[in-house]
Amino acid sequence: LLFLLFISSIQFTALGQCTGTGLFNSQTDVTNFFTSGAGAGCTTWTGHLYFMHASITDFSLASNLDTVTGSILIQNTTASDFTGLHNITTVGADLSIINASNITDMTGFDALTSIGGNFAFQNNNAATSFAGLENLTTIGGYANIPENDNLVDFTGLNNLTSIGDYLWIDDNDA
Asked: Is the dihedral of CA 25, 106, 172, 73 positive or negative?
């Protein structure tokens, strides 16, 4: 029964529907979704996108997207940057980048202007700056930036003018 509940919460809709929850546990999942699945050709994704596996190294097939109305979670991936997400201007809910072991900055989120919910950037130990977020002006919720061992430069957040809740920066060792 729990398995059925879990499966029912994951929605991959028909080609061109551009809605639901995309859960990616491999680079193959990402490729299939954006080439022949629900995400093919979409510019607006109404729902959430969860990229959650070390085999995910490339976001380039998502380059048509300019808006995600829900959340984007990138966790435990080995991509070196976020190229392919470079046309996204709006994330309607949360943007969370957690344990993305090879990224050094936010290159690939160059068009992002608004995060409607929270921004979490945690345990990204190769990251040294926020370069790539130069167009970000608004975070609707909180900004949580803990445990990034080499983060030394907040360049990229220079144009951030509004955080709706709080800013928490903690345990960034560098």
From this structure: negative
Dihedral sign, Cα of residue 164, residue 75, residue 18, residue 47: negative
Q: How many C-beta neighbours within 10 Å does residue 36 have?
A: 10
pTM for the whole thing?
0.90
Alpha-carbon distance 93 to 61, whole Å?
Answer: 22
What pLDDT, in 10s, does the model give residues 114-137?
999 999 999 999 999 999 999 999
Do 165 and 142 contact (CB within 8 A), yes or no? yes
Q: Which residues pair with 134 in a beta bridge?
A: none
Instruction: Report the distance separating Cα 45 and Cα 65, nearest Å.
Output: 7
User: Which pair of structure tokens corresponds to residue 156?
Assistant: 């990229």
Determine contact, residues 27/58, Cβ cutoff 8 Å: yes
pLDDT at 13: 42
Element (H, E) at 47: strand 44-51
Reported as half-sphere exposure (CB side, CA atoms, 13 A), residue 116 has a value of: 12
